[in-house]
Amino acid sequence: MTGSPTARAALAVLSAALLAGCARAGAGETGHEVVARKPAALPHGYIEGAEELAEPHPRLVISDGGTGTAHLLDLVSGELTAVGAAGGAGVIGGVGGDGRFAYLSALNGTTARVIYGGTWTVDHGDHSHYYRAEARDVGALTGGRPQRVLGDAGVTVVSFSDGTAKVLDRSALEKGDLVETARIRTGGHGSVVPYGEHLLVASAGGMEVRAQDGGLVSRVGASCPEPLGATVTRRGAVFGCADGALLVTVKSGEFTGEKIRYPGKPPKGDRALEFHHRPGSATLAARAGSTGIWVLDVAVRKWRLLRTGPALAVAATGDGSPVLSLTADGVLHAYDAASGDETATAELLAAPLPAGGAAPAIETDRSRAYVSDPTGKAVHEIDYNDDLRRARTFELGFPPAAMVETGR
Fold it and tell me: Record's SUPFAM superfamilies (predicted)?
């Protein structure tokens, strides 16, 4: 700025006067002073840095069984992009996801790679909000072999084969940081499930309720001998036990347990080890060893054993919808969950699986199932409500090892 000090001072006074005038109505039209307007209220469901969508925008996070690279398959556009390494060459397995993040790992590895899928759903009970943001590789968790991932709005819990579970701060995860808030030891086996703003810890010593920082709060008055798989449904948290399932619910801050016993006493090899179901559904499916498929209807507290023979992968698609089973001959089967009757089949996989290769996976949402095809280097999209019609096939160019759906 040039000119004398007096001129500069006069200009400053004039500028201040002009700025003050902007706070008055009509910029001098009426001369009446008005109250400054409040900022517009943020829209319901607003999340900073995310784009809100009118409908779900599902994506699949898939690891390359040869190189370990993690890829993102956009199920709306069909676009496939690389987002990060899943743990190095030879990755042939996976862990799971919490609806927003995928956790990928080698079957015999000790690292879980955390991939942010970039799309997610916020369920408010009577309605939902859908969001999209940029996908990215968040980082890696080390420990034993990762086995299970479960999350809620506050925390995500990653359970490892060495009997430990790491509790991660969910808000930090959403900012791209891996912040461990607690570490819980369950012994040789066990499960830790975030539920009701607490952590449910099933171990050989019984069922505990802990705060999200790991501190003991109370105990659930029901046992779960030899705890195995675990999941969360709208009707409560479900734990697989040697004698059936334990359903844990909460009301007015009090946690209670209810046992859903197996019909009879199945051999140890036929127990339900892991539950597979569409998020939000109360119908669960689990492999029953070489015998077939367990179907657990949490709503009516009842197990049903479908004697289908061994399956590579199973999934329940929802209450009143088919239970899916993929067999070693590459055929996808649909069964009525109530009667056990087979309702449809579809020849799906390109060829029998090679020994030691990655097993196929099934991911389900409200209208479609996605089946990975390691030999065919593809993912098949299936309309399970239309006699297993193959809606699309996505050619990947690599063998899919792990596959996790986000955004649903």
Answer: YVTN repeat-like/Quinoprotein amine dehydrogenase (SSF50969)
